[in-house]
């Protein structure tokens, strides 16, 4: 049988199991409500557009202006002739925002994460990662192990005893690196950052935190998990995305000491062998950072909306995973049920995605709701009504 026939059979099996992902096409800008092809207006409850900046005029205009000033793109990798002044400005703004000395942009947070570990570890070093870390961190650690022959381990999710024990078992490793998400995207749980920092200090490790779901989201002014816990400036390395709260286009970054960012320029393979972030995207992200700094009330509104929705969905009879972030996952069990719930909600004008295995553990499929500052109370009330109706049809309520 040919490869492509086998692939078609895999697709058919996914369809039979009710776990095939159908793409929905959006005809206009991302926002609290979008125009979906074939459906008309729907309320979006599955976007990472946490601050509603994807269609903020200042953010869009900055991209348009950069397109005029810099043209379409870099047409080169960065060190050859692919760096624009807007990259430098963006990186300075990102470093200021997350509380580090410097930062280095990448075309995605996936790219940034994947670049980091193989560049900073050597044979004999020890890298330890939370069991629920994002796939890009997992792949980064795997890549580092394959390239450098470093030693790796996974600690049980948020289990500080397990983390400490495994670090102690590798005490003699020259470099010890702890990788954690700031906010775990499928749970909406916040990392125990103060404990992790303490353990790192005591065990001689450095902390790398992916704050993709926390940048623009956590802390009074949206600076992320470190601000949330009052430890801004204490995390050794932060990675994050520009594809969520900060405008939502694409892009990611590594933030930390200037020497680290310079080494990433010198040695990280995605910098050496792949084009830089398009200047339009860099300019929009820069405008998004400035907008967030100038409008802390957006972050307050996001926090208020998240609290409001969490209470309302519980009141309606659902049991979301507890938490304090705008990610509100509702566990339904089997993957097919999560997808059915998502389809029923779409029929009721609410766009929210169901996630199942292998994105989340078997039997813990969920509908993951994500609240935005762009939602009005009317939007959120309409979502809760749709959930009640869909939940009854699906037999969840
Ligand atoms: C925790 C985390 N890290 C990294 C990424 C990748 O972000 P990007 O879209 O910028 O590659 C995501 C996106 O889902 C994420 O949730």
Q: How many structurally independent domains?
A: 2
How many individual helices?
A: 15
- What is the name of the CATH topology of the largest domain? Aspartate Aminotransferase, domain 2
CATH architectural type of the largest domain: 3-Layer(aba) Sandwich
N-to-C SSE string, H for helix and E for strand: HEEHHHEHEHEHEEEHEHEEHHHHEHEEEH
Low-confidence stretches: none
Overall SS class:
alpha/beta
Largest sheet: number of strands, sense, barrel closure: 7 strands, mixed
What is the tally of beta strands? Answer: 15
Beta-strand content: 15-25%
Distance between the termini: 45 Å
CATH superfamily of the largest domain: Type I PLP-dependent aspartate aminotransferase-like (Major domain)
Q: Walk across the major sheet and give the strand order.
A: 3-11-10-9-6-4-5
Describe the global form: globular
Small molecules bound in the structure, each named once: pyridoxal-5'-phosphate
CATH class of the largest domain: Alpha Beta
The overall pLDDT average reads: 96
Percentage of residues in helical conformation: 40-55%
Work out the radius of gyration: 21 Å
Blueprint (SSEs and pairs):
Blueprint: H1 3-16, E1 33-36, E2 40-44, H2 57-70, H3 78-81, H4 85-98, E3 102-106, H5 109-120, E4 126-130, H6 135-148, E5 151-155, H7 160-168, E6 176-181, E7 183-184, E8 189-190, H8 193-203, E9 206-210, H9 225-228, E10 237-241, E11 252-256, H10 258-267, H11 269-273, H12 279-294, H13 296-315, E12 327-333, H14 335-347, E13 350-351, E14 354-355, E15 365-370, H15 377-394
Parallel strand pairs: 2-13, 4-5, 4-6, 6-9, 9-10
Antiparallel strand pairs: 1-2, 3-11, 7-8, 10-11, 12-15, 14-15
The structure holds pyridoxal-5'-phosphate.
Pyridoxal-5'-phosphate is lined by residues 108-110, 113, 134, 136, 181, 185, 210, 212-213, 241, 243, 252.
């Amino acid at each position: 049988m040919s490869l492509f026939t086998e692939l078609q059979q895999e697709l058919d099996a996914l369809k039979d199991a009710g776990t095939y992902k159908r793409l929905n096409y959006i005809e206009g800008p991302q926002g609290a409500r979008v125009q979906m092809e074939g459906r008309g207006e729907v309320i979006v409850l599955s976007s990472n557009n946490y601050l509603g900046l994807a269609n903020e005029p200042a953010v869009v205009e900055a991209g348009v202006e950069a397109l005029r000033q810099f043209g379409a793109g870099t047409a080169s990798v960065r060190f050859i002739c692919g760096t624009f002044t807007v990259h430098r400005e963006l990186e300075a703004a990102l470093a200021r925002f997350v509380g580090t000395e410097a930062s280095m942009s990448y075309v995605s947070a996936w790219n940034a994460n994947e670049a980091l570990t193989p560049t900073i570890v050597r044979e004999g070093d020890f890298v330890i990662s939370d069991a629920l870390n994002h796939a890009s961190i997992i792949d980064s650690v795997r890549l580092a192990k394959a390239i450098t022959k470093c030693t790796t381990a996974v600690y049980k999710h948020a289990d500080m005893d397990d983390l400490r024990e495994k670090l102690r078992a590798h005490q003699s490793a020259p470099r010890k690196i702890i990788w954690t998400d700031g906010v775990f995207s499928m749970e909406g749980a916040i990392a125990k950052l103060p404990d992790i920092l303490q353990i790192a200090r005591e065990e001689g490790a450095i902390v790398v935190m992916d704050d993709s779901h926390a940048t623009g989201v956590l802390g009074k002014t949206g600076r992320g998990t470190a601000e949330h816990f009052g430890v801004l400036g204490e995390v050794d390395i932060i990675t994050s995305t520009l594809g969520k709260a900060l405008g939502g286009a694409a892009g990611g970054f590594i933030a930390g000491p200037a020497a680290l960012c310079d080494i990433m320029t010198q040695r990280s393979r995605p910098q050496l062998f792949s084009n830089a972030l398009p200047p339009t995207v860099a300019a929009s992200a820069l405008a998004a950072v400035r907008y967030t700094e100038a409008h802390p009330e957006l972050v307050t509104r996001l926090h208020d909306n998240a609290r409001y929705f969490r209470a309302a969905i519980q009141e309606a009879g659902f049991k979301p995973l507890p938490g304090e972030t705008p990610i509100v996952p509702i566990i339904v069990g089997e993957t097919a049920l999560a997808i059915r719930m998502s389809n029923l909600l779409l029929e009721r004008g609410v766009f929210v995605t169901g996630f199942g295995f292998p994105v989340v553990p078997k039997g813990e499929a969920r509908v993951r709701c994500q609240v935005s500052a762009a939602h009005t109370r009317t939007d959120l009330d309409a979502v809760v009504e749709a959930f009640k109706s869909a939940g009854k049809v699906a037999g969840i309520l």
